[in-house]
Amino acid sequence: LNYMKDKQFEGFYKGILPDSRIERRAEKIMVDMLNFGNVVVNKFCSTHTDRAGAYRMLRNDIIDYNDLANGLYRKCKDNQHTGHLLCIEDTTEINFSHHLKRIGKDDEDIGPVTKVNNAGFFCHPVLVIDPSNQLPIGISNVEIWNRSWDKLNKYERGYHYQDIKEKESYRWISSVQETKKLLTEPSCLTIIGDRESDIYDEFVLVPDQRTHLLIRSKTNRRLWRDDETLFEKLNSSEQRAIYELEIKHNPKRAARKAKMSLKYEKLKIRHPKNRPLEGKPPYVEMWAIEVKELPESVPYKEEPILWRLLTTHTIICVGDALRCVEWYSQRWLIEELFRILKSKGLAIEESQLEAGAGLKKLAIIALQVALTSMTLKLSLSNNHKIKADRIFSKEQIHFLSIYMQELEGKTDKLKNPYEKGTLQWSAWGIARIGGWSGYISQGPPGYITIKDGFDRFLDRFNGFLLAYKYLLKKDVYKG
């Protein structure tokens, strides 16, 4: 019965960690973290034995976060296919400033982050998305690092003249190189990065016959043998199309249908003048895309939407350019992953561990748990027939099929509209348990609803297991 209960991540670390007991403990932590929706050990462990085991594993020096990350990579590799995949990379900081007195500045795994006197570390994952259904298949690489408290600033280090491999920004390149090694089956990988990844060395080192870049431009770069700069070139380019873009409300944007202008140009980006050439080509050839909101749809006191994208994909027509814009728009998924990891879900920055090494291990485990929650919610919004066993055990699917009779209403509008046994079918049931109305027309459920539904489902599933255990014993006694 414990096997049935803990099968959620069964075998996730099998053969990866140095001891089978550590593997089982790491898998148990993942199960409990998902069940309780929190990364604080005292909150996701229900017994003293579980707490002691979790602390022991997280403090064990025989493994580090890289060992645990190998479980994520294997899962991602198992989910790859021969088509096209989007590889979205980004960096977030995990801030433990409010725990600094307890952790201490002597901890080598904790250092200063973005703001002065804040402490923590940085996490840079590569989230792999299947664009055919806009669902994650896994995480192909994670880099975690922290700065030292006595690190020199950029000017003191001569940052502009440092080799790229000595810079923190090399993560944008090294993460992709590891991803390319892991994902050998896809015919095409599109690497998506925000403005921080606008790095000339990346333009040179990353692309190959099956690997393309799609980067948001940060720098108004000089062009090869052209008097105009990148931004000037796009500004003076021919407008290729006007289209509408649905904007959802957020703290920075009002909800609206934005009218967008589309431009694109093939151009040669010149090697930065103030950087040593050192064998790099004097220019790289890429396509530049500009999408800019037209004045008539920009709300009062709001800046117009403006994306300038650089890509190695060939742009022959408007459809090619809009496809790249659509792919880049999927970058919000990695930001969503970070929100679930932190304030919107698992609250990793509230962890009470007292060692940076343990916090880094916890972050790796939490990434996979956050990805599981995100995939479940996203599955309701997309057209696909992915099987529920990507997240649920066979026993959980069986229980949910029984429970679904109670969740469905008498009218057709309150029937589960998805194919039985698919991820969408199970997500619909979980959302209903969490309090969602079940009416597709009213929009998808939020993460809190999904999390509450998951918690309640697992409570009831465990009750089902106890009843099964009782009936099993009763039958044995009668026999």
What composes the largest sheet? Answer: 11 strands, mixed
- Tell me the series of helices and strands, N- to C-terminal: HHHHHEEHEEEHHEHEHEEEEHHHHHH
Shape annotation: globular
- Approximately how much helix is present in the residues? 25-40%
Low-confidence stretches: 1-6
What is the C-alpha radius of gyration, as a whole number of Å?
25 Å
- Report the sheet-strand fraction: 15-25%
Word description of this protein:
- The protein has 479 residues and is of the alpha+beta class.
- Strands 1, 2, 3, 4, 5, 6, 7, 8, 9, 10 and 11 form an eleven-stranded mixed beta sheet that branches.
- The protein is built from 16 helices and eleven strands.
Please give the structural blueprint:
Elements: H1 2-5, H2 20-36, H3 41-44, H4 48-59, H5 65-79, E1 84-89, E2 92-95, H6 100-103, E3 111-112, E4 119-130, E5 135-145, H7 154-157, H8 171-182, E6 188-193, H9 200-205, E7 211-216, H10 230-235, E8 241-247, E9 256-270, E10 283-293, E11 306-311, H11 318-329, H12 332-341, H13 356-378, H14 394-407, H15 423-433, H16 447-478
Parallel strand pairs: 1-6, 6-7
Antiparallel strand pairs: 1-4, 2-4, 3-4, 4-5, 7-11, 8-9, 9-10, 10-11
Helix pairs in contact: 2-13, 5-13, 12-13, 14-15, 15-16
Can I get a quick summary?
The protein has 16 helices and 11 strands. It is of the alpha+beta class.
Q: What distinguishing features does this structure have?
A:
globular, alpha+beta, 11-stranded mixed beta sheet, disordered N terminus, 479 residues
